[in-house]
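Notes from hallway chat w/ T.B., transcribed later so I don't forget. T.B. wanted the structure written out for a chain they're using in a teaching module, and asked if we could keep both sequence and C-alpha cells in one place. Agreed to drop them here.
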Amino acid sequence: LAGHDPYAIEPLRGCEHDAASVFALQMPSGFATPAPLPPYAIAFFVPLAMLSFEQASCAWFLISLGAVIGTAMLLLRLTRLPALAIGAALVLSDAFVSLNEGQLVPVVALMLCIAAAAARAGRMGVAAAALAAAAVEPHLALPAMAALALLAPQARRPMLIALGALAIVDVLAG
C-alpha cells in the first residue's frame, strides 16, 4: 500500500524484522523472505495490509484455521474417508506447518476442495472462481484448472472468464 516493491529486499527486510520484533522474535540481520507470488495474488492481501500487523496476524490465523476446518468438512463429503484419517492428515500437514508459519496452503486447499465439490455438482462457474482464488499458489491451481478445462468442456468458458479476471487484477496490481 505504501507503493514499495514487494519483490525487493528493502523495505521488505525492515518490515519483516519490525513485525517479528512485535512477537519478541529475532530474525538474522540480513534475512528477508521476498514474496514469490504474482501481483494478482498480492492484491488479495490488500485488506489485511490495512490492519495493524497484530490485527492482520490474528485475522490471517483465524482465516487459516477456518480454511483447515472447511477443508476437513469438504474432504469428508468428497472422499467418504474416515474423519480420523482426514483429521490426522490435515493436522500433520496443512494445520501444523501452515498455521504455525502463516502459509497460504490452508486457503488454497480449501479453494481446491470447493472447486472439486462445485465441479461434481455441475457448478462450473463456482469451480472456476474457486480455482482462480487458489491461483494465489499458481503451481497448485494451474494443474487443476487445466484438468477441469480438459475433462469438463462446459467449464472452459467460466475458466477463461476467471483467468481473464486474474489477468486484469495482475495488470492493475503490478
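Follow-up for T.B.: DSSP finds nine helices and no strands in the chain. Might be a good example for the class.
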